[in-house]
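Board notes, transcribed. Complex of a protein with 2'-monophosphoadenosine-5'-diphosphate.
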Amino acid sequence: MQPKRAGVIGWPIEHSLSPPMHNAAFRALGMDDWLYDKNAIPSDILAKSIKEFMRHGYIGLNVTIPFKQEVAKLTRPDDIVKRVGAANTLILPRNASTNTDVPGFIDDLKANGMIPAEMKVVLLGAGGAARAALYGLVQEGAAVAVVNRTPAKAFAMIRDMELEASVKTHDEAAAWQPDLIVNATSVGMQPDIDQSPWRDDRPLPDKAIIYDMVYRPIKTKLMQAAEAQGLKAIGGLGMLVRQGAKSFEIWTEREAPIDVMFDAVRTALEDKN
Ligand code: ATR
């Protein structure tokens, strides 16, 4: 029997948690004819590779660093991809792309009891992850202020995406009294676990929930600082799982077993650390 294939492409790809997450989901649902693999693709053969995956009957691919922008141009992007400028999910039989980071992130906020429409959100960062978060938050009706090391990039992101949001300094953002602070920078990610995207010499705003998209380490320096201040801190594992679950559902038309996927990712992280 020919397996139904899906996988992830990137460079490097060694540490991807997507294969154990998706394969655990297939096993849990008895989908023994499905296989999810990881593929390190050199950037000069990206376009050729996508055609090759199609030729071999792959149904879906997840896309990670550094190809999220480029694949948007090589496929038929949906509206989310057009606005965010990046795709993380390809549906190969249709040569289509979408970005499940957006609903994955928003779903995870809601799963943690938040109602984005009622929230003032400070978004740290202006790269690809920040663009996905900004799009989702503004679509939901949140009020968003972007804080970035390079403010010009924050202004450019908001302008390019044609969204309503402001740009603030750390101090202005703190004085605004946000309900939620989202770290969409890579600051604090392994191996730089002693770094935080929030300035060490400033306390975090009083009532804010802290959401760190970083999941390596599981508890970042930012999350530790939040908890030391008595604030709720949420790491990036939920977003990782929920974007995967969305991709899974698009490809298989089955409901994703979220708990199984969470367990698989936690186990894979423990094994690797
Ligand atoms: P990604 O696609 O993962 O979001 P990216 O596009 O390279 O990655 O964006 C990285 C983000 O992290 C940017 O907002 C970057 O700030 P700049 O726009 O000023 O470059 C931010 N970032 C990275 N390293 C940082 C650091 N040491 N301090 C503060 N911000 C940092």
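The longest helix spans residues 237-252. Residues 125-130, 148-150, 153, 185-187, 197 surround 2'-monophosphoadenosine-5'-diphosphate (CB under 6 Å).
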